C-alpha cells in the first residue's frame, strides 16, 4: 500500500473572510444550497487524477480527505464515473470522506445517467462518508450520502459523536481493500 497525501494550494477562502489557507476550491458557505466552485473543483480533480495516473497498475488506488479534501475526493470519484475526459478516468478501489460532502450532489444521478456506460461504474466503488462535527450539517451530509447511494455507489454513512471511530474506519478499509 502506498499513501500519497497531496497538499492543496494556498488560496483565499470566502467563508474565512478571504483568509488564505490550503484549499482545493473556494467556498462561501456550507449548506445544501451552496454554490460550488466547479471551475476550481475540475482543476483540482484533473491535477489529482494526473498525479494518480502515474502509479503502476498493481497499485490499489484509494482517495479520501477531511472537510474540503473530502469534498474534493468525493467530487473526483463521482465525476470519473460520467466525465468523458480520459484523464479523469482513474479507478479508485475506495473513497473516504471524513466530515465532508459531495459538491454538485443534486445533479449526480442525471450526470451519470446521461453518460453511456456511466451507470455500470459506480456499483463497484465503495464510499465511506463520516460525520463527527457541526461544521457540515448532518442533514446535508445525509443527503449527499443518499445521492451517492441512489446513483449506484456503495455509499456508507457513519455518524460519530465526538471523535471518529478509527477502528471502524480501519476495518472498513481492510474489508474493501482485501487486507
Description:
By secondary structure, this protein is α/β, with parallel strands linked by helices. The chain has helices spanning 38-53, 68-79, 108-113, 138-150, 166-177, and strands at residues 10-12, 20-22, 62-66, 94-98, 126-131, 154-159. Helix 1 (38-53) crosses helix 2. It starts with 9 loop residues before the first strand and ends with a helix. This is Alpha/Beta hydrolase fold. GO terms for molecular function: hydrolase activity. Pfam families: Abhydrolase_2. InterPro entries: PLipase/COase/thioEstase.
Q: How big a fraction of the residues is strand?
A: 15-25%
Question: How can the largest sheet be summarized?
Answer: 4 strands, parallel
Low-confidence stretches: none
The largest sheet has its strands arranged as 3-4-5-6
Helix proportion of residues, in percent? 25-40%
Shape: globular
H/E element order = EEHEHEHEHEH
C-alpha end-to-end distance:
10 Å
Structural class: alpha/beta
Which value, in Å, is the CA radius of gyration? Answer: 15 Å
User: Care to count the β-strands?
Assistant: 6
SS element count, helices: 5
Mean of residue pLDDT? 85
Question: How are the elements arranged and paired?
Answer:
Elements: E1 10-12, E2 20-22, H1 38-53, E3 62-66, H2 68-79, E4 94-98, H3 108-113, E5 126-131, H4 138-150, E6 154-159, H5 166-177
Helix pairs in contact: 1-2
Quick summary of this structure?
By secondary structure, the protein is α/β, with parallel strands linked by helices. Helices cover 33% and strands 16% of the residues. InterPro entries: PLipase/COase/thioEstase (IPR003140).
